[in-house]
Amino acid sequence: xxxxxxxxxxxxxxxxxxxxxxxxxxxxxxxxxxxxxxxxxxxxxxxxxxxxxxxxxxxxxxxxxxxxxxxxxxxxxxxxxxxxxxxxxxxxxxxxxxxxxxxxxxxxxxxxxxxxxxxxxxxxxxxxxxxxxxxxxxxxxxxxxxxxxxxxxxxxxxxxxxxxxxxxxxxxxxxxxxxxxxxxxxxxxxxxxxxxxxxxxxxxxxxxxxxxxxxxxxxxxxxxxxxxxxxxxxxxxxxxxxxxxxxxxxxxxxxxxxxxxxxxxxxxxxxxxxxxxxxxxxxxxxxxxxxxxxxxxxxxxxxxxxxxxxxxxxxxxxxxxxxxxxxxxxxxxxxxxxxxxxxxxxxxxxxxxxxxxxxxxxxxxxxxxxxxxxxxxxxxxxxxxxxxxxxxxxxxxxxxxxxxxxxxxxxxxxxxxxxxxxxxxxxxxxxxxxxxxxxxxxxxxxxxxxxxxxxxxxxxxxxxxxxxxxxxxxxxxxxxxxxx
Length: 484
What we know:
By secondary structure, the chain is mainly alpha-helical. It has a domain at 159-353. Helix content is 30%, strand content 6%. It has 14 helices and 8 strands. The protein has helices at 21-31, 59-87, 121-125, 129-134, 159-169, 216-220, 226-235, 261-264, 312-321, 329-335, 342-353, 377-387, 454-464, 471-481, and strands spanning 94-99, 105-107, 274-276, 288-290, 406-408, 418-420, 423-425, 430-432. It is globular, with a radius of gyration of 22 Å.
């Protein structure tokens, strides 16, 4: 019989796992060592043996898996903690005045650690991409962030979401093999406010609650039409998923109803739940996903990790058919894939997603530019840089601050291939331009959450795009993004 579930008061949090000293640090450095790719543009990456996962699992295998993986959990999480500590300053350092839309403080400062032997970001920015690559000086926090257990993968939820769902529904989203890895103070506020394009006068329609199957009727009756209300019901209804289902290769102790759309996209926004993109193989090339917000879906034109879906309806239908099961159609059939009906289910769910609004931005005019009478000198300076020297508006033009396109930032110019706790960092290819409206509400940043603060994003793009920004210019850009 497997171990019983721990209560929230007894659950070991990742923050409580201490560093293991010099030995762990040395092991982390080994894990970050080069795997031999002198020319990232010419040498192909690894190829897996098969595109399919094993299918036949017996109940005896489940009991053995629970015992084995539960025993390995502390070591796996300590390894991830060591990696995070090596890459970042994880301390709780909120800004003095800046808050998210619901009042949670925004975290301050650059958290990515400089490489050993480099004294300042200015010193690093004076070097060329080739020099940084040849000397191995690319900051580790700018490399892809691996899943808490990259070889295993799967959905992992923050503790506060697990506890809220357990209290409201009795549905347990805790995994017996893994925990979430990033500290709570670096995540979006929870539960996040929810704004509707159809009723902006109401402000936060969630009324400070996490929207679930238990309360959605009380919250939205008389606000949504009957079609939208049914769409909301489906968005908070659990359906089987790769790790949470009734088969013997699940990662929950008990057979499971599954997960909901809003288990990751809490209140139509995000709680920073993580997963792996279902598209590439083998496993080490799959990207960690930092759950993106659904706010502003109505202004977006491409969806999915490879942007192959062109409507919210396509995204809704095929997310459950594919991404819920790691992109494996055989596993989907085995675990109980939910075949949504296009006209009376998918369309209703898509309509709800398309009325999820951005948070208020009182300093912006209708075209997305700062109102001079409301903005500070630093914010106005940041806006000028955003549209000028910093080149941000090339991909993030107002009013919604996205070009609805994809771009290859060619980050591989700065580093050789490297393995990071099971994640192989090679050429990453195209990345979607996400809207920057309400960006202060959506830490952490970049598609895998490798950038913990807005200041980190400025340092990342300053280096990658070789902009040569001064310190006061970088601070002005952060001040400006807080107004969006």
